[in-house]
UniProtKB/TrEMBL annotation:
Domain Polysaccharide chain length determinant N-terminal: 1-89
Entry membrane topology: Multi-pass membrane protein
Protein name: Polysaccharide biosynthesis tyrosine autokinase
Keyword Transmembrane tagged: yes
Species: Pseudokineococcus basanitobsidens
Enzyme class: transferase
Amino acid sequence: MDLTDYLRVLRKRWRFVTVTTLVGLLAAAAATLLMTPRYEATTQLFVSTQGGEDASALLQGSSFTQQRVKSYSDVVTSPAVLRPVISQLGLETVPVELAERITASAPLDTVLIDVTVTDEAPAVAADIADAVAVSFVSVVTELEQPAGDGPSPVRVSVTREALVPDAPVSPRGPLNLALGLLVGLAAGVGVAVLRELLDTSVRTTEDVAALGVPALGSTLFTPEKEGASVLVAGHTNTPQSEALRQIRTNLQFVDLDHPQKVVVVTSSLPGEGKTTTSVNLALTLAMAGVPTILVEADLRLPKVSEYLGLESAAGLTTVLAGQAELDDVLQPYGTSGLSVLPSGAIPPNPSELLGSRQMAELVADLRGRAEVVVVDSPPLLPVTDAAVLSRHVDGAIVVVRHGRTTRDQLSKALERLGSVDGRVLGGILSMVPAKGAGSPYGYGYGYGYGYGEPLPAPVDEVAGVPSPRAGEREHGVVALDHALAGRHAERD
């Protein structure tokens, strides 16, 4: 990942990073408030030698005391020094526990010893430091006492008594808050980048193209509260309408030398929006003046007829079984130029039926009746219907749901098509968020091209006359809102 990728991740997951940063800051603030303040008091000792009046003796004494000081630092926290302190101050502790609150250090190349005591009470810290200094002087004098009653060659003096501290040394509020902020920010960024690296879902048309599938475009997902999410004739300048027109245009330029008259629309798994895409792509083609036939070939969970409000008792399976002629079951959809072939009765053997010679002959018949035939089929991974059907058509369009379909699932679906020599025309990224980082709709259609207001009356825009089923189909075309997509997306 380069810098641009990191910035994209931060832009996409800025809410998560903000939350983790605030959590780190609040955790640091809570820890700071819950911590008991602790105070430090320090006393300083000076170690010297007695005797020696000439320069040589003084030099030897200085070297002697510097070596002694290194050992004295450990003596400060010894039980011999701390027991008198506990007894003198009446402390309810033992030498081992008291030693944990005392530190002794000797600055390099000096004969000084700094004794620091930490306690929750500032006055107690100062009293302990002074008492330790006095006890240490006595213990060293006794330890250095030569045989007999001669004077000790080492003298320890208190050069600075402990002062009662007026400010605690811990907790350090500003430092803790700064550390909490940095830790929360680092954790948020790290998790966001890790999630991005581990996320194998397809989120952009570039991801689709990276798997060797031409990206035909994307369709919009709009939250329910924002209204209709797909094409409505009275709202012909919505982002969804523009997206479908872009897909229609890109489909026309997939292969100029071999125009695609019959295309099958499928997906990797259920719930990716293939039926919604099939319906609206067919409607978009029809409204552009292209004679179009929409075939409901999902013989397991057919939904096209339900979406369009058409009768599906007789249709594709009826024709394949020789029980009806195509002209008898092909239903015109208003006067938009779209004709729909419903599924008919659901058969027990959909795959065999779609791969039969009768299906191939029906597809050939449909070629002569319209410029484009859109065939809605089942998903590729659960069943083989779409793969079998792809042998009879000019190519397949694979619908990929934004953020849900994984690269592995799409790759396996393409392998299914490739195993039967099915031709993949391209992929459509469906249910792309209208807002947010990476959304192709985030910039809108500016430069003076606004959105038109909804038509006040339920009029079939193509024909200019009232629709025969306006109450069911709203202005003569499908009006699938988010609620409808939510009910049926998992089943299409």
